[in-house]
Amino acid sequence: MLVDHAEVTIRSGKGGDGHVSFRREKYVAAGGPDGGDGGRGGDVIFVTDTGMNTLQDFRYKRKFSAENGEEGAGNRRTGKSGRDLILKVPEGTVIFEATTNKVITDMSGDNDRFTILKGGKGGKGNWHFATSTMQIPQYAEPGGEARTLQIILELKCIADVGIVGYPNVGKSTLLSRTTNARPKIADYHFTTLEPNLGVVDLDDAAGFIMADIPGLIEGAAEGVGLGHDFLKHIERTRVLIHVVDCASVEGRDPVQDIEDIDHELVSYNADMSKRPQVIAANKVDLLPKEERESVLKRLRDRYEKDETKVFPVSAATGEGVRELLYHVSSLLMRHRDEGARFEQEYFPEFEVISKEPYTVSYDEKENEFVIEGPRIEKMLGYTNLNAEKGFLFFQKFLKDNGILDELKELGIQNGDTVRMYGHYFDFYD
Ligand SMILES: Nc1nc2c(ncn2[C@@H]2O[C@H](COP(=O)(O)OP(=O)(O)OP(=O)(O)O)[C@@H](O)[C@H]2O)c(=O)[nH]1
Ligand SMILES: [Mg+2]
Known about the structure:
By secondary structure, this protein is of the alpha/beta class. It folds into three domains: about 160 residues, Spo0b-associated Gtp-binding Protein, Chain: A; about 170 residues, P-loop containing nucleotide triphosphate hydrolases (Rossmann fold); about 80 residues, GTP-binding protein OBG, C-terminal domain (GMP Synthetase, Chain A, domain 3, 2-Layer Sandwich), CATH 3.30.300. It is built from nine helices and 18 strands. The protein has a six-stranded mixed sheet, with helices on both faces. Bound molecules: guanosine-5'-triphosphate and magnesium ion. The site of magnesium ion (MG) has 6 residues, from helix 1.
């Protein structure tokens, strides 16, 4: 069985506590404070491992913890840091926060290492707290908290091209004809039970990775048939090849088939309708010339527009397949930067920040609106306001946290100045 889904709990290490102790030396009556700092807690880090292709490792073990930092010791000795926990996943794994289902990270492309939870900081030992008035500090800082997160791992193939269509139309035959993959092929429905991946090599054009998934049927998006569990594997593809049986071996109408399957794709993920699609009118070897022309004409009249093209092919004999592949390769070049990545929507670090307090007020003397407090200060530490992306991100943060609304309640007008920790900006709604 292909294990492509797992739900697990991860926990970072707690920071070690700072230590309280005092120097003891011969002939020195009362030594100064010398309690060392706690060690930092371990991080939880995901890395991709090209040797893996399932999430099997997460099937039985469900809880993963990094090590805690150790407490500091006398003589200003720092406690040992907790070891980071490194979890290996196959490339193409997307990690979601379990309750919101928001994307935390997509382990693909150059994102081959991602720190998902930071360990707690080590607490400062008591020697840091000695001042002229407080020479015997009995206090040391506790270590930073460990953090726990419930996550879902989902493996989404990294194929460039996805092959979709009803059962038995010849999807696997096409994959085996064009790639190094050797999927099972047979004359019955649901021969393919798990996605197959293959590499297309072209002499004088860019090659690509192609995935064949189990056949789709009506209701697939709602979980009917087998296809639903595998739609995720074609979500990140940039081009879809829609295979139809234009010889209607099973009595269905290929023109209607395309509409039905497209409907399923869009119900599953609306973005799928934006994928460029190529129609492979398969099994033409079974049709006499006139019938062939008439089916092709109907398909073309209905679907050929913009980038969508219909290719008469026979996956069995290889006829027409070359033209199809070169067209797909050129589409891929044109859509190089699309569809391959899932953007981060959930930021574990910000979840902590968003529990911190803040205040919004009006400074009459300066005629400025002031936002301050740890939430704002820490957020500024994470954001580069000089970059456009950072600035937009910060704006969204202000909005999502209700801070913009609070400014408005205080009567802010367009053009008024907002101040936060030395940053000034003009308010525009
Ligand atoms: N004559 C002819 N038969 C074909 C062609 N392509 C596929 N077939 C036959 O159609 C049947 C189904 O082919 P598969 O490739 O297994 O179809 P599939 O779409 O992968 O089917 P599922 O995995 O069940 O969804 C097999 O018997 C193939 O030999 C073709 O171009 N011409
Ligand atoms: Mg198949």
